[in-house]
Amino acid sequence: MSARDWIEKDFYRELGVSSDASADEIKKAYRKLARELHPDANPGDAKAEARFKAVSEANGVLSDTAKRKQYDEARRLFSSGGGFGGGFGGGGGNRFDVGDVFNRAGGQAGGAGGLGDLLGGLFNRRGGNASSATRPRRGEDVETNVRIDFTEAVKGATVPMRLSSPAACGTCGGSGAKPGTVPHTCTNCGGAGLVTRSQGAFAFSEPCQDCRGTGKIIDDPCPECGGDGVSTKTRTLTIRIPAGVDDGQRIRLAGQGEPGRNGGPTGDLFVRVHVNPHPLFGRSGNDLTLNVPVSFAELALGTTLTVPTLESKVTLKVPAGTASGRVLRAKGKGIEKRDGKVGDLLITLQVAVPNNMDAKAEEALKAYAEATAQHDPRAELNALLESKGRAT
After folding, report:
1. Which regions does the record annotate with the repeat CXXCXGXG motif (predicted)?
2. Domain limits at 264?
3. Does residue 374 belong to any structural domain of this protein?
4. Can you give the pLDDT at residue 66?
């Protein structure tokens, strides 16, 4: 959207609020209109879709405190009679210089007080002759994935990784020019990367077509990268996975992403870790979990269990009368984090019911059932059901 379009649009009218509306009033008006005009609620309605875009654009400016201030200031400047009225020309031969207002023709801002800077935040521009394409730009971040075993996640590991990603061209060193040559300043834009064109009362800047907005011309492009200064390379990195890393956690490797432009810093590499499940152990924060099957007799009479840990084994005493599902804790047998804190091993006891029993075992179990017939394991449950029945 051009500067002129932006200034001429009445965003307050689009949202149906006054120019002194509060932030809450603007938010409320936008949400109401967005619900009414959303394309999902008006399938195939081009007019509703256009209105939805208009109110979204208005909200994008008015809901941002800084942009709203810029917008209000710009409308005051352009609607005042002291310079912009009367067909963009003042009386007495004092024509209003819009080029000065937008600070595009070089030099300092005129009587508008540097409106080029005022509008810079909205149009992603700045006053002066410098093009954003010629300023140093940070390289893009890169994300990749690595899969490790459960034990490696707990203890930490060093993992080699082959990565194909953009990197500074090794032949030209990132300049884009053939070795032995150097780029020269673009004569069309003077190295600014922008050219200014007049359109009526306005002067607009656009990227220079000769240098594609870079401000430099490469006569002999590098044969490897074709003048981009960047080429895709396959490299091997050694990644240190810290102990206790979680499944899905990202590890940041500073300066290992895509190279910057125009001398800007290199981006970062983010490695997302995926952990293979363990056949026995699970994880809950810093604690390891383990389900151990036991017999009814072991829980009823008590026993001593020997269970595995990730490194060795541990012996635990099970008191007589222990309920199925009880969790025993082996202190310090969990996951050690980088801060030195160590979790525990949580052992859940689960009764294992045999699928088949021989005649002797069945007879013994029946005898046990008869001997304990007076004991009702569901006594509390039945009492609760009876009380609810009486209440109804």
Report:
1. 169-176, 186-193, 208-215, 222-229
2. 142-183+218-275
3. no
4. 82
How far, in whole angstroms, is CA 333 from its chain's centroid? 35
C-alpha pair distances (Å), 98 with each of 75, 101, 201, 271 = 14, 5, 6, 50
Buried b (16+ CB within 10 A) or exposed e, 301-324: eebeeebebbeeebebebeeebee
Helix axis angle for 23-37 and 46-62, nearest 10°, is 160
Number of structural domains in the chain: 3
Same domain for 172 and 75, yes or no, is no
> Which residues are annotated as part of the binding site?
169, 172, 186, 189, 208, 211, 222, 225
Please say whether the beta carbons of 55 and 30 come within 8 A: yes
Considering the domain architecture, whether residues 270 and 170 belong to the same structural domain is answered as yes
Domain-embedded: residue 365: no
Question: Which distant-in-sequence residues (6+ apart) come within 8 Å of 168 by Cβ?
Answer: 174, 229, 230, 259
Q: Is residue 42 part of a domain?
A: yes
Q: Is 359 exposed, middle or buried (0-12, 13-18, 19+ CB in 10 A)?
A: exposed
**What is the structure's pLDDT at 298?**
92
pLDDT at site 114: 43
Instruction: Give yes or no: residues 156 and 111 share one domain.
Output: no
Q: What is the pTM of this model?
A: 0.52
Do the beta carbons of residue 158 and residue 238 sit within 8 Å? yes
Q: What pLDDT does residue 5 have? A: 57
- Write out residues in the chain with pLDDT < 70, as ranges: 1-7, 77-134, 199-203, 391-392
User: For residue 62, how many C-alpha atoms fall within 13 Å in the half-sphere facing its CB?
Assistant: 28
Residue 90 confidence (pLDDT): 41
Tell whether 9 is covered by a domain: yes
From the centroid of its chain, how far is CA 137? 20
Q: Which residues carry a binding-site annotation for Zn(2+)? A: 169, 172, 186, 189, 208, 211, 222, 225
- Identify the CA nearest to 330 among candidates 341, 319, 321, 317: 317
* Residue 89: strand, helix, or coil: strand
